[in-house]
Automatic annotation (TrEMBL):
EC code: 5.4.2.7
Gene Ontology CC, one term: cytosol
Cofactor(s) it depends on: Mn(2+)
Originating organism: Idiomarina ramblicola
Gene: deoB
Co-factor remark: Binds 2 manganese ions.
Protein name per the record: Phosphopentomutase
Family that this chain belongs to: Belongs to the phosphopentomutase family.
InterPro entries with a match to the protein in the record: Alkaline_phosphatase_core_sf, DeoB, Metalloenzyme, Phosphopentomutase_DeoB_cap_sf
Domain Metalloenzyme, residue spans: 3-387
Lineage start: Bacteria, Pseudomonadati, Pseudomonadota, Gammaproteobacteria, Alteromonadales
Keyword flag Amino-acid biosynthesis: no
Residues involved in Mn(2+) 1 binding: D10, D337, H338
Length: 399
């Protein structure tokens, strides 16, 4: 009997995927470009533990070249790169596919950059949420739009609606002036009104502060996702009386489906401390599933290369701590849900390969090649937990 600890470094892509061109992302490489930037700064990325677990080799499998400036070491884990089958490069699709359920249908999108939302929908929202009006109604970066419209929002009481290349409806509002609970209520209503539009997520984006110079988003972000289209590994494990401990955003991403315990935490240290406490308590037959959101939200979307690099170095330092909390049969998995290259144009995700780095006492080191789908991880977990196989994905050989 085993336990698996799956850490999703949200947005940590390792090179443009075979179908990246379709997304305008040919040449994107979140990891490779961060490494290149740091080499140019004469401060090469210091990630000895990720390197030991096979990150450099997985990136080379994906791109054909080694990331710049990083010293190679002997690899002690199994490593692969995986392409995505799902139609979109969004967070729910990436996570569901990792758990064995790629998204084969097309999401609805609000593609217009301005006046993005249909008028009929906006009218319904205003009426059912008893709003005076709304601001935004465009594609935007969440931190920029609160700078631009936050003060007007406080004066008018109208929430800020925006979207992106993802299938999302995002609502920013001030935690105190508008009220956090009221924002959540509005999001829940919008979630229901979006039914005919096939939209993946509504995201509540609360913020605090008094003026454009000091508005700040808080950890009270909440995602209202639709249910995964089919049962995932989480459901299968739960059926077999296994435990699924979801840390951070994971429970929201699966709309609670298949989760037996949800632990909320924020920040890299907060999320990894919560993961460690789960590792201390969890019995056999448990999946501990953690999403590390800051890579994406604070650095990828903000196109903050140096911030992303430092977060990677901080994460690397955590790895020996996590490894020392592992039991002999535990398997640790490091992966990602899509890319978000901080050197790329715009502020959206990038279509990339993700790393699959598997380690633990029973894992034999070495390459596991290029995988066609993130769902190979789901199939691997099914085998590890002795569950019936998923419809998609090929299990990765551990030993
Ligand atoms: O710019 P912010 O608000 O961080 O939003 C980003 O986060 C959302 C979820 O990943 C994406 O749709 C993108 O728009
Ligand atoms: Mn994501
Ligand atoms: Mn994102």
């Amino acid at each position: 009997m085993s336990r698996a600890i799956v850490l999703v470094l949200d947005s940590f892509g390792i090179g443009s995927a075979p179908d990246a061109k379709k997304f305008g992302d040919d040449g994107a490489d979140t990891f490779g470009h961060i490494a290149e930037y740091r080499q140019q700064q004469n401060a090469p990325l210091n990630i000895p533990n990720l390197t030991r677990l096979g990150l450099l080799e997985a990136h080379k499998e994906a791109t054909g070249v080694y990331a710049k400036g990083i010293n190679k070491t002997e690899v002690s884990g199994a490593y692969a790169c995986a392409a995505e089958l799902s139609s979109g490069k969004d967070t729910p699709s990436g996570h569901w596919e990792l758990m064995g359920v790629p998204v084969h249908f097309e999401w609805g999108y609000f593609r217009d950059k301005e006046n993005s939302f249909p008028e009929a929908l906006l009218a319904q929202i205003v009426e059912s949420c008893e709003l005076k009006g709304y601001l935004g109604n465009c594609h935007a970066s969440g931190t920029e739009i609160i700078k631009q419209m936050g003060e007007q929002h406080i004066r008018s009481g109208s929430p800020i609606f925006y979207t992106s290349a993802d299938s999302v409806f995002q609502i920013a509002a001030h935690e105190e002036y508008f009220g956090l609970e009221r924002l959540y209520q509005v999001c829940a209503k919008v979630r229901a009104l979006l039914e005919p539009y096939n939209i993946g997520r509504v995201i509540a984006r609360p913020f605090i502060g008094e003026s454009a110079n000091n508005f700040e988003r808080t950890a009270n972000r909440k995602d209202y996702s639709v249910l995964p289209p089919k049962p995932t590994v989480l459901d299968k494990l739960q059926e077999k009386r296994g435990e699924v401990i979801a840390v951070g955003k994971i429970s929201d991403i699966f709309a609670g489906q298949g989760v037996t315990q949800s632990v909320k935490a924020s920040g890299l240290d907060g999320l990894l401390n919560a993961t460690l406490s789960a590792m201390e308590k969890a019995s056999d037959n448990t999946l501990i599933f953690t999403n590390l959101v800051d890579f994406d939200t604070l650095y990828g979307h903000r196109r903050n290369i140096q911030g992303y690099a430092e977060e990677l170095e901080a994460f690397d330092q955590w790895l020996p701590v996590i490894e020392s909390a592992m039991k002999p049969d535990d398997v640790l998995v490091l992966t990602a849900d899509h890319g978000c290259d901080p050197t790329w144009e715009g502020t959206d995700h990038t279509r990339e390969y993700v790393p699959l780095l598997l380690s633990g006492q029973k894992v034999i080191a070495g390459s596991r090649g290029k995988r066609n789908s993130f769902a190979d991880l789901g199939q691997t977990l099914c085998r590890l937990f002795d569950l019936p196989p998923m419809e998609e994905g090929e299990a990765i050989q551990l030993s």
